Amino acid sequence: MSANVTIYEKAWSDPRFGVLARLLGSSKFDAIGRCAAVWRLCTETRTYLVSPEHLGEVTQCDKFGEFLVAAGLGEEKNGQIRIRGTRGRIEWLAMLRKGSRKGGAATKAKWKRV
Questions:
Q1: With a threshold of 0.70, does the pTM exceed it?
Q2: Which of 20, 30, 31, 43 is close enough to 71 for a disulfide, judged by CB 3.0 to 4.6 Å?
């Protein structure tokens, strides 16, 4: 299972993405797309904190962490960037994988009994 990202309607009207776009020198569409890549990383790694280096790699912008903070979409925590809005939205994949393991173990046990 890989991480799917849902972009909620709120993102399109949230002025912080417009600020991020201006800092990037691009469009709101580009800013939201780069954030989607960050949200996918957060979901896959089950973390709210991302290093500036990883943000730069995922978004192909070395200053992306700095820009997220300036736009109000992130905050600096001990040298890492906490991605705002991820709490409660990135846990689903871990729960799905846990449920799949449980189901797989139950099926395996069932077949051992046969």
A1: yes
A2: 20
